[in-house]
Amino acid sequence: MKKQITRRDFLKGTASLAAVGLLGACASGNSGEQNNTTTDVKWDLESDVVILGAGGSGMCAGIEARKAGATALILEKTDAYGGTSIRSGGIIQASGTRVQKELTNYKDDTGEKHAEYYIQEASGLVDADLVKDMTTNSNSHIEWLESLGLVFTNMSGSAHVNCADESLYADRIHGTDVGAAGMFNAVHDEAVNQGVEIKYNCCADKLIMVDGVVAGVEATLDGNKVNVKANKGVIICTSSFDHNVEMAKRLSPNHYYDLTTQHVVAYPGNTGDGIRMGMEIGADITNLGGVIDLTSRTSAGINRQTPLLPCIFVNSDGVRYQCEDNTYALTSKQRYEEIIRTGKPVYTVFGASSLPYGAMTEDSLKAEADAGTAFVGNTIAELAEKIGVNAKNLERTINIWNEDMATGVDTQYHRQSGLTPITGPYYAFEEGFLNLGAIGGLRINLDTQVLDVNGNAIPNLYAAGMASAGWIGQFYPGSGTALLGCVHFGRKAGKIVASK
Ligand SMILES: Cc1cc2nc3c(=O)[nH]c(=O)nc-3n(C[C@H](O)[C@H](O)[C@H](O)COP(=O)(O)OP(=O)(O)OC[C@H]3O[C@@H](n4cnc5c(N)ncnc54)[C@H](O)[C@@H]3O)c2cc1C
Question: Which residues lie closer than 8 Å to 478 by C-beta, 6 or more apart?
């Protein structure tokens, strides 16, 4: 029995995993023959459904597989269950729920509206059927989580975006008082109660093909190679290439930038193994390039209920380049693009007039300035010199902002919060990224089958959670989306494979 995990274990766990070198326990990549015949393989373990990864999507898959009458075996690379899911914020999007009706003004919300909002946020560059399937079933996942003992007590909504029709918006982010640990300990306990078996320290290395069909997995269990037979199918739930620098360099420049210069706090076990294994046998990949990035200092655009610290984001020319209170992953995407476009840092600029709205004080900022993590100027020109931007441009930028604030309307970017003039002394810091994981992975269809590059389902291969893709577009559309996808596609995959 594994110990119950609390949120405080998160960073500690990350450090200790790296320290013991557990992540190096897997065999690296494929070296063997893919086209076996039945007699070629000696099987060491066997289950109807074999699931790779005991994170959120994997455990959900296991539960539904057992409920549908199949045996379910999860192979987990590390010595703990939960992956990033159990270390997350534990909030999940859903529409048309009883909780939403009770706690918000959005009493007529529907899964269809929810889907359309996501699709517009993605500029249509998602698989609309997958998105609709996920949102129109979201209500049932909240009810299921409630049946495991969770009580949803609070609701919030994603910060605004100009690319989606505001009439489609609703507060959809469901939260409990027990966080992700409460949620995924409950999911884990349900998996155990249902008879799902989890093998820890068991790294899936490669898919085993027999007569052109995925028949099982080659894995490293406690240092020994084992062949695990999957009678009905294999479900890849190993999340994205969150900590794989090489894959990120090839597949997602933004994620590569974050991995090499910023903080990536997804579970260290997530190194893109399942995506690599799928690609090795011809799986298609899709919707790569996005990341779940937060601004590291201001939490700008974290949700619609948290107003922005009155500040502006300026580029190396001292000019605003975006709407600062758009949803966080959109502002982060634009910040990354600005850094790449100019090859220079971008800054968050604010003033003494902003301090009453946040946690920072004159003294804390002075201490930060002494430490080199913030900049202070009595005049705009002095601040501009310290951060190396054109002083006249920065003066013009702040003047335009302050003139707009006389009427409370941001004429440049239509910002909705933090609408306060900026007066001196002036402050700035270089804005960075807190990365919660990469986006993009194996292309799946409505039955969670992994597709090859011609759109054909690879026999007996399925994927769910952040290892699967097609349901998130170019930027992360708001908190709670990943867990909705994990629970939805995880549960669905388990049920479908078990029912074959
Ligand atoms: C700090 C933080 C807060 C977040 N908050 C939220 C939130 O509140 N709401 C939300 O929707 N999203 C949130 N996210 C994002 C979300 O938590 C993740 O995207 C999601 O949990 C991923 O779930 P998953 O099932 O795909 O993978 P995971 O839950 O990460 O599970 C993957 C598992 O696969 C295992 N594995 C990997 N490779 C192998 C292998 N070769 N063999 C066997 N096992 C393997 C891993 O060890 C891991 O246990 C947050 C992320 C972070 C980092």
Answer: 93, 121, 157, 158, 159, 173, 303, 327, 329
Task: Give the Å distance between the CA of 267 and the centre of ligand 1.
Answer: 6
Query: Residue 11 pLDDT > 80, yes or no?
Result: no
- The half-sphere exposure of 284 on its side-chain side, counting CA atoms within 13 A, is 17
Residue 30 confidence (pLDDT) above 80:
no
Burial of 79 (0-12, 13-18, 19+ CB in 10 A): middle
Contacts of 177 (CB under 8 A, 6+ apart): 151, 153, 154
Residues 377, 351 within the same domain: yes
Pairing of strands 468-469, 441-443: parallel
Are residues 68 and 193 located together in one domain of the fold? yes
Distance 465 CA to ligand 1 centre (A): 8
- CATH at residue 334: 3.90.700.10
Looking at the structure, do residues 335 and 404 belong to the same domain, yes or no?
A: yes
Q: Is the peptide bond before 421 cis (omega within 30 degrees of 0)?
A: no
Same domain as 301, residue 190: no
Ligand 1 proximal residues by C-beta, below 6 Å: 26, 52-58, 75-78, 83-85, 87-92, 203-204, 237-239, 265-267, 269-270, 273, 292, 436-437, 465-467, 479-483, 486
Residue 171 CA to residue 87 CA, distance in Å, equals: 23
Closest Cα to atom 11 of ligand 1: 480
Do the beta carbons of residue 467 and residue 240 sit within 8 Å?
yes
Average confidence (pLDDT) over 460-486: 98
At 329-354, the pLDDT tens digits run 999 999 999 999 999 999 999 999 99
What's the gap in Å between 488 CA and the centre of ligand 1?
14
Residue 490 alpha carbon, nearest atom of ligand 1: 25
460: domain range? 9-88+182-291+437-498
Overall average pLDDT of the 82-108 stretch? 98
* Count of all residues that appear for the chain in the document: 500
Is 104 a member of any domain?
no
Number of domains in the chain: 2
Claim to verify: residue 336 and residue 383 sit in the same structural domain:
yes
